[in-house]
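seq:
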Amino acid sequence: MKQQNKYYNNLKDFLSSSLSSHKDLHFNLNYNEIGGEGLSSLGFALANCTNLTKLGFSFINQISDDGVQGLGQAITKCINVSYLTICLNYNQIGNQGASGLGQALAKCINLQNLELYINKNLIGLIGASDMSYALAKLPNLSSLILDLGHNQISQKCELNLGSILAKCTNLSNLTLYLSGNQIGNEGLLDLGYTLANFTNLQNFTLYLNENQIEDVGILGLGSSLVKCTNLSSLTLYLSQNLICATSLLDLGSSLDNCSNLSNLTLDLGYNKIDDQGAQELGYALSKCTNFSNLALYLFENQIGAKGASSLCSALQKCSNLLNLTLYINVSQIDYEGQSCLVSALAKSTTLLNLILNLGDNQIQVSEKLKLKWKCLKLKRLISYKLFS
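struct:
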C-alpha cells in the first residue's frame, strides 16, 4: 500500500525511506544540526520523490543566509509540488538569504499554494521585495501566506513598502504578516497603493500590529481596498497602533463600496479610540448591508457607555448580519452602558450567534447576571457567549 503522508523528525529516516512512494511530506527539523552536506542529500532525495505534491518544512536552527540558500537548492528539485509550507521563524536570515530563497521558489513552477513563515529574522525591505519579485514568476500561484513579522522592514529605504507585493497581483488569497516592523503611515500608504491593483483578490488578511500607524495611514488603506472589487473576506489586525477616530468613518465607508464583502474581522485593540470613534465606526458599518459575519475587537481603548451603545445601535441596521463577535473589554463602560448596548443588539432581527466580551469594565456580579438575562431575550438568537 502506498504512503499518503509522512512526518519526519530527522533526515536519516527520510533518506532510507521509499522515496517514490511519498505524496505528502512534512519535516520537523527544528534544532537539528543539518549542514551543507545534509541539505545536499535532502535535495537529491527530494528529486527522487517523483509523486510528491505536498511538502512542508520547519527549521529553527540558527540558519543564516548561506543555510537558507542551501535549503532553496533542495526545494528546486520538487518540480511537481503544488502545496508548499516553509517555517523559518527565529533564525538569522537577512536580505541575501530572502532573495536567494525567492529565486529558488520561482523554479517550483507548479506551485499553487505557498505558506512562507520567516518571522523574527533580519530581513529588510530590499530582501522582502526581491523575494516577492521572484514569487511573481510562479504562473499558477493563487494563494500566498507570507509572514515577515518582527523583521527589519521600515520605510527608511530607497524602496517603498508596496514593492513587496507589486508583481503578485494575480493572487486570489493573500495573508500578509508585517507586525512589529517600522512601517508607519507612509509605508501603509505605499502598501495600499499597490493593493489597489489586486483585482482578483477574494480573501485578504493583513497583520499590521505594532507599527506606529495613525489615522492618515488607515485612510489610505481604506481607499485602496475599494478597488479590490472581488473581495469577499477581509481581516485587518491593527492593534497597538495610534489610531483615534477620524479614519474609522472613512474606513467603514470604503468597505461599504466592497459590494461582495460578507466577512469582516477588524482588530483595533490597544489604540486611542473614544466614544466618537466608536460612533463613527458604527455609522459606517451600518451601511455595509452585505455583511453576514462580523468580528470587532475594540478592547483597551477609551470607549465609554455612549460610544458602545451608539456602535451597537448602528450594527443592528446591518440587515444580513448573522454572526457577531464584539470585544469591548477593559474599557470605560458601566452597567447602564452595557445594558443599553445589549438592548440595542436585541433589536436585530437577523442575528443568530453572538460572542460579547465586556469583561474588566465597571459592573458588579449581580449586574452581570442581569446582562445574561437580557441576552437571552435577543430575537432569533441560537447561541451566545457573554464575558462580563
